Amino acid sequence: MRYGSMCLLAVAATCVVLLFGRAGGEPPVRGTEIEHSFGDIVLYIVTKPKDSKSDSGYALYEKPTIAHLGGRAFIVGTVPDYGDDEAAKAAAGKRVWTPVSDVVQMTEFKTLAEAKRYFAAPTKPVEKAGQRRD
Predict the structure, then answer these.
(1) Cα distance between residue 104 and residue 56, in whole Å
(2) C-alpha angle 51-53-54 in degrees, rounded to nearest 5
(3) Is residue 81 a contact partner of residue 88, using CB atoms and an 8 Å limit?
(4) Gap between the terminal Cα atoms of the chain
(5) Hey, which bits of the chain come out as E strands?
(6) Domains located in the chain, CATH noted
(7) Which of the residues 14, 28, 64, 74 could staple to 21 if both were Cys, CB 3.0 to 4.6 A apart?
(8) Which of 35, 101, 21, 30 is nearest to 70 (CA)?
(9) Which helix (H) or strand (E) holds 1?
(10) pTM reported for the whole predicted model
């Protein structure tokens, strides 16, 4: 094979790889691709702990979606203005990405007010019928 033919073959192979990215003819990911939109809900998610000494993580998102970036799926949403403390105010309005693979639980709320009521509700043990309080 001549040098010119080999160069042409190499250029053609490179073009195929750039156009189709991976085997199977799938196009490469260009930025993010929205896979699913949850609509106008507020989503509370709990993530698994990073290690045995860590607590679970949590997040509250408005208008969440599932998007792909770099071959990974993420829940993407905007942090709502949900509290008066400084940390809550600083996070409000920020766009946050959480890997779907880290999520262990999701709770959907129709509105931010509904989510606030849920988290503000007192937690006390439920009395069973026939049980006396001493």
Answers:
(1) 9
(2) 70
(3) yes
(4) 95
(5) 33-37, 42-47, 57-69, 72-78, 95-99, 103-109
(6) 27-120 (2.30.30)
(7) 28
(8) 30
(9) none
(10) 0.62
Interval 42-100: pLDDT, tens: 999 999 998 888 888 888 999 999 999 888 999 999 999 887 788 888 889 999 999 99
Phi then psi dihedrals of residue 21, to 5 deg: 70, -70
- Closest to 78 in 3D by CA, of 55, 67, 94: 94
Residue located via tokens 């946050």: 96
CB of 104 closer than 8 Å to CB of 56: yes
| CA dist 37 → 9, 26, 66, 76, 78 (Å) | 43, 23, 6, 10, 13
Asked if 79 and 16 touch (Cβ cutoff 8 Å), the reply is no
Q: State the Cα–Cα distance between residues 36 and 33, nearest whole angstrom.
A: 9
CA-closest candidate to residue 58, choices 121, 115, 114? 115
Is 60 within 8 Å of 75 (Cβ atoms)? no
CA distances (Å), 130 to each of 22, 127, 133, in order?
65, 8, 10
Are the CB atoms for 79 and 94 separated by under 8 Å? yes
